[in-house]
């Protein structure tokens, strides 16, 4: 017999442990059987069968009393409907008697069993159609359960604060966690009922016919719900010429079957409660059938819970039988048994002396029965019934039934060896599959450790079962007649007061508290679902007939009924089937499924928590990649002949020259740059589009976030989405959204696309599953409606859509792009904001379109979104594609495209294994001594126009000293003295022309920009309450845009000085000097800087004057004219600036060169021009390019100027 208490049948006299101090004993029983003579044996076997009784395990009762007359002989039949066939029991005569022996003829009557088919292909097709929609409804319920659990665990993650922006909320975390057991119990119960509903549908509703209605009414109801209403809907929509006739009809079909299942489940629940009230009368002596139902209900709840809380003892018995024939013809049968007693830790706790106040011992112990024992439904494994697949899938394997180990029909050695080998092979396959998944995802560290722990746990469990099967193998080899079974006794029982307290605590903790939280959290839909499921499952949990049936035992179903049409037989048969639903294998299967899902989600949350605990989420580079791209020029992509890609270039309203062609490779680069470190992004942009052609506009992003933080409600304070805005100039730009980079991003993926993915999977496995495609977007919508308000706050696409609208409201022409999750968010954002979106390997949105807020339309997805679908990539297979997409081959690690900056075909190779996009860009060059940027290959000056967005903000630097004198409060004597001194200091400073001189050292451009603005006093700290509500957001927006511009300038400089090995160039220093008048002119003398490269930008006032290297010398009349005298520049020590300037740049040479070049030799920068001046640190003996010669312009009297300079902070001069 099975080693499972739920799969056992045992004799009524199974022993209780005779020794309290022993867990294992052996007993033997000897008794004799008298052998019967052959004549006695003949008469005993030949006697007629007096009666045939219909067991309650039959699908339906027999049609008895059917008689057939033939040649004056009357034969009786019994007909049993068995699913798609009939079993016919026919009375036959034994022809082994003498002619005329009437008594022998009567005694020789027997029963012949025949099987006849009563089905047809049309019936099977009709039932298959019924079952198809029933399975789809069941799939919907399963997906609903999985997604609710997912939403709960995402809510847990939010409450844990494992994202980058949420704070820990212990109370909410506990409330969400307490709701999970109720959901799991409810979903397992619902799927068990759905499984029985599907099976009952396929076999013609035999169980449904036991619900009290006659067969005709039952079949008509089933026909109307399964076929009648959907067919009438089809006819109506066709006559109305509706274009979506099939969608409406399919939705109606789905709805009617869902309602039918709900009615089916309600009937099962109703009859189970009725049976529970009947059983409690048999168990409790102080009740009778006339007792009030409330009293019965109370006692049934207490009794059922008390049985669950009792301490139990399990006794495993293995009985071995042997027969020995004596000389006198008797057979001596010997039975030896081995008993093993086990008690769980909870049982031992109830026997603890300090628990005597709430627990009392049961003397004698009370015997309880498993469901199989009670129903008498035990299966056997014989030589002919053995099946490799059946035993592999059976719970407990061969121990899940009664194995016959000896005799002609005993299991053979090859069969048991195959069973053991199959279990071992199956376990090995499980381990290899999980290992392959772990390797494919690149799990390591804590994630790999958790996976190994789960594997070890299941391996240990499997080995225990395999060891028990080996014991069966030994019995088969030795041909022992063995009977195995478990016996369960209750040995301690809780007192009624404790039982009632436990029930109240269970209801409060697992139902009331989570329900209150879900209501307060604003998640009305989930609260209603939880309340409904909680009430239904609590009724089935507390009014559980199985617990009472286990106490009554087999007597309940041992009654014999010759007439299966009687009401008593039908009632007992119905309860027999309902009892099976309560504890059948389907229930345990679904419980294990949902527990497995729970374990998976727990592992994901733990990995997310570990990721948060070990990673600095406050770091600006958290979740981003360093050195994401490397440069190469040795690869070429061989295009397929005569197969052009018309979508390699896109143009959706962008008028910037940098996006005239809008190459897909460019969008792939921009999508990938959303993953890079902030201080490296600008360098990649400069390499691809040219220095300064495209800027990483951090200021605009920060301005938007600042405005949103000041808005009522602050909708996006909890959002962890990451995106960047690449400004192409001319009010045009691209928003790039980062994809999956952290565990939290992975959970966001599941939040948005798991329902659609599961419905896709369901459609794939269902025969003719595509007929349900028109309603998948609606079923996905219904599931996604159960998201909580806290989850909606972290919905990534809402913030990105608001940002795009923010840009468009300010006159920007915008495109949206992204990779993976970022690409999916880009497609959603574009469809919601009427903006063109390009996704790179992005999940789609056709099925999920109605689940977003606001929903997106099919037209928007078909006209505004474009998805690049690489081969061998599973991510773009998620959800159904819109009409615009491009399949591309992934035959190599990179592709070749000619860069805008260099005509040499080169590529950027993505070094991050999480993506597969490689983008073209020019190759960096370096000499043996320096890491000079390629921009200075043939020149020493580079000018990039980066207009200052709000110059008036910078005027605070010039007005800072003056504003400090303003004071409306009466001054003390000491205050007057202090202010006088301040005024003196101010006048002294103004005499030297400098009003502000600050310097900061930074590694991150954004941090450096913030430090500069703080030092310069550009941040508004006071709030003017008299201004309108629009004032503050406008001021903050200007300040944030100023910060963004400053960040872009600093990033531009960092991208120039950075190289693959940038250990000496990582720290930079920025300096802001504000001056007034001629005495404020900083460096009016021609000079070259002793630095690698310096960035000079005039924010207000005239820019610097410089002479590019290519303008320094020119040929005239076979004579080279040197505009710059490098010898004088390097050796002149004259203190007079005017004399030095004339010697370094002679006026006559300057005028002659101007005539020859037909333009000014001296370049005068404008305000907002970022002038990069190569210094002596980047001079190289291998070429003639020397440091740039420049000077500051002479300021007129009263003229104001604010100058920004950026340098390397830690330049190592040892390699000069």
TrEMBL record:
Alphabetically ordered keywords of this record: Membrane, Transmembrane, Transmembrane helix
Q: Which residues form the Fungal lipase-type domain?
A: 734-877
Task: Say if the entry is tagged with keyword Membrane.
Answer: yes
Q: Note down the stretches annotated as region Disordered.
A: 1-27
Q: Which domain of life is it from?
A: Eukaryota
Q: Where, by residue number, does the polypeptide cross the bilayer?
A: 130-154, 174-199, 220-239, 251-271, 420-442, 448-470, 498-518, 524-543, 588-610
Record protein name field: Fungal lipase-type domain-containing protein
Native organism is Cyclotella atomus
């Amino acid at each position: 017999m099975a080693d499972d208490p739920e799969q056992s049948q045992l004799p009524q006299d199974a022993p209780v442990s005779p020794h309290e101090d022993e867990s294992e004993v052996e007993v033997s029983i000897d008794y004799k059987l008298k052998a019967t003579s052959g004549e006695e044996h003949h008469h005993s076997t030949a006697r007629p069968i007096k009666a045939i009784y219909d067991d309650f395990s039959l699908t339906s009762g027999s049609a008895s009393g059917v008689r057939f007359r033939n040649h004056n002989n009357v034969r009786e039949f019994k007909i049993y409907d068995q699913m798609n066939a009939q079993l016919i029991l026919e009375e036959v005569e034994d022809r082994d008697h003498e002619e005329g022996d009437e008594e022998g003829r009567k005694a020789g009557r027997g029963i012949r069993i025949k099987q006849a088919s009563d089905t047809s292909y049309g019936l099977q097709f009709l039932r298959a159609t019924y079952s198809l929609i029933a399975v789809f409804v069941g799939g919907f319920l399963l997906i609903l359960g999985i997604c609710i659990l997912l939403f709960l665990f995402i809510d847990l993650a939010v409450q844990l604060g494992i994202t980058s922006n949420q704070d820990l909320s212990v109370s909410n975390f506990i409330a969400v966690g307490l709701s999970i057991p109720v959901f799991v119990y409810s979903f397992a119960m619902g799927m068990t009922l759905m499984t029985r509903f599907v099976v009952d549908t396929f076999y013609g509703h035999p169980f449904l016919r036991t619900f009290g209605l006659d067969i005709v009414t039952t079949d008509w109801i089933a026909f109307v719900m399964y076929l009648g209403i959907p067919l009438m809907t089809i006819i109506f929509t066709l006559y109305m010429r509706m274009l979506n006739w099939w969608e409406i009809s399919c939705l109606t079909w789905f709805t009617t079957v869902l309602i039918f299942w709900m009615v089916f489940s309600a009937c099962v629940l109703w009859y189970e409660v009725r049976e529970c009230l009947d059983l409690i009368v048999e168990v409790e002596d102080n009740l009778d059938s006339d007792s009030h139902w409330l009293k019965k209900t109370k006692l049934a709840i207490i009794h059922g819970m008390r049985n669950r809380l009792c301490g139990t003892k399990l006794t495993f018995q293995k009985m071995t039988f042997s027969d020995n024939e004596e000389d006198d013809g008797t057979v001596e049968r010997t039975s030896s048994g081995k008993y093993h007693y086990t008690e769980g830790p909870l049982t031992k706790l109830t026997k603890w002396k300090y628990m005597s106040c709430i627990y009392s011992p049961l003397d004698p112990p009370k015997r309880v029965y498993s469901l199989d024992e009670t129903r008498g439904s035990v299966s056997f494994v014989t030589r002919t019934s053995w099946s490799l697949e059946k035993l592999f899938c059976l719970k407990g394997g061969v121990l899940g039934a009664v194995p016959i180990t000896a005799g002609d029909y005993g299991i053979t050695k090859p069969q048991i060896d195959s069973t053991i080998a199959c279990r071992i092979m199956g376990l090995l396959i499980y381990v290899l599959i999980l290992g392959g998944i772990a390797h494919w995802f690149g799990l390591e560290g804590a994630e790999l450790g958790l996976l190994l722990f789960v594997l070890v746990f299941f391996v240990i469990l499997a080995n225990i079962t395999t060891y028990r099967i080996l014991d069966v193998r030994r019995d088969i080899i030795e041909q022992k007649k063995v009977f195995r079974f478990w016996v369960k006794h209750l040995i301690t029982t809780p007192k009624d007061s404790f039982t009632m307290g436990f029930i109240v605590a269970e209801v409060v903790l697992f139902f009331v508290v989570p329900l209150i939280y879900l209501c307060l959290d604003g998640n009305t839909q989930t609260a209603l679902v939880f309340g409904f499921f909680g009430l239904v499952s609590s009724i089935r949990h507390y009014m559980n007939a199985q617990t009472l049936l286990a106490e009554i035992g087999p007597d309940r179903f041992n009654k014999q009924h010759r007439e299966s049409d009687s009401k008593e037989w039908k009632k007992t048969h119905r309860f027999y089937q309902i009892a099976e639903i309560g504890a059948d294998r389907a229930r345990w299967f679904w419980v294990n499924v949902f527990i497995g899902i729970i374990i998976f989600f727990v592992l994901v949350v733990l990995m997310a928590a570990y990721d948060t605990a070990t990673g600095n989420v406050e770091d600006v580079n958290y979740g981003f990649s360093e050195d994401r791209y490397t440069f190469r020029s040795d690869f070429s992509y061989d295009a397929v002949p005569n197969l052009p890609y018309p979508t390699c270039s896109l143009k959706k309203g962008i008028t910037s020259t940098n996006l005239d062609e809008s190459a897909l490779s460019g969008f792939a680069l921009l999508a990938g740059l959303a993953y890079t470190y902030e201080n490296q992004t600008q360098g990649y942009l400069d390499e691809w589009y040219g220095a300064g052609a495209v800027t990483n506009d951090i200021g605009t992003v920060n301005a938007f976030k600042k405005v949103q933080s000041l808005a009522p409600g602050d909708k996006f304070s909890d959002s962890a989405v990451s995106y960047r805005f690449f400004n192409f100039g001319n009010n045009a730009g691209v928003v790039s959204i980062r994809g999956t980079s952290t565990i939290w991003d992975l959970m966001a993926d599941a939040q948005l696309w798991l329902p659609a993915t599961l419905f896709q999977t369901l459609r794939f496995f269902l025969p003719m599953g595509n007929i349900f495609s028109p309603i998948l977007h609606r079923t996905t919508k219904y599931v996604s409606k159960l998201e909580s308000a806290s989850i909606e706050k972290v919905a990534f696409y809402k913030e990105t859509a608001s940002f795009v609208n923010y840009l468009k409201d300010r006159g920007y022409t915008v495109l949206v792009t992204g990779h993976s999750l970022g690409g999916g968010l880009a497609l959603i954002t574009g469809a919601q904001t009427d903006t063109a979106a390009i996704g790179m390997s992005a999940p789609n949105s056709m099925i999920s379109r109605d689940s977003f807020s606001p929903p997106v339309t099919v037209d928007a997805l078909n006209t505004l979104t474009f998805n690049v679908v690489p081969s061998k990539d599973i991510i773009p297979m998620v959800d159904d594609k819109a009409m615009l997409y491009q399949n591309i081959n992934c035959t190599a690690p990179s592709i070749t495209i000619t860069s805008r900056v260099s005509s040499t075909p080169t590529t950027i190779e993505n070094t991050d294994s999480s993506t597969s996009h490689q983008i073209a860009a020019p190759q960096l060059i370096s000499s043996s001594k320096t890491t000079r940027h390629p921009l200075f290959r043939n020149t020493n000056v580079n000018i990039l126009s980066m207009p200052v967005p709000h110059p008036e903000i910078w005027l605070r630097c010039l007005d800072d000293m003056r504003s400090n004198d303003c004071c409306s409060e009466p001054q003390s004597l000491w205050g007057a003295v202090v202010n006088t001194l301040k005024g003196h200091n101010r006048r002294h400073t103004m005499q030297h022309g400098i009003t502000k001189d600050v310097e900061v050292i930074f590694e991150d451009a954004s941090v450096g920009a913030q430090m500069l603005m703080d030092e310069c006093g550009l941040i508004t700290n006071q709030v003017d309450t008299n201004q309108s509500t629009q004032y503050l957001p406008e001021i903050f927006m200007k300040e944030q845009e100023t910060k963004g511009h400053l960040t872009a300038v600093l990033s531009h400089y960092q991208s120039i000085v950075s190289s693959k090995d940038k250990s000496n160039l990582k720290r930079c220093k920025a300096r802001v000097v504000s001056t007034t008048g001629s005495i404020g002119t900083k460096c009016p003398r021609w000079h070259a800087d002793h630095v690698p490269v310096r960035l000079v930008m005039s924010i207000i006032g005239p820019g610097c004057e410089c002479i590019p290297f290519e303008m320094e010398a020119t040929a005239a009349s076979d004579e080279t004219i040197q505009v710059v005298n490098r010898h004088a520049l390097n050796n002149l020590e004259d203190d007079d600036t005017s004399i030095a300037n004339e010697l370094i740049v002679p006026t006559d040479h300057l005028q002659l060169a101007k005539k020859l070049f037909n333009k000014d030799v001296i370049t005068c920068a404008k305000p907002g021009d970022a002038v990069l001046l190569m210094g002596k640190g980047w001079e190289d003996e291998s070429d003639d390019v020397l440091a740039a010669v420049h000077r500051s312009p002479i300021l007129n009297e009263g003229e104001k100027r604010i100058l920004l300079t950026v340098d390397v902070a830690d330049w190592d001069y040892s390699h000069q």
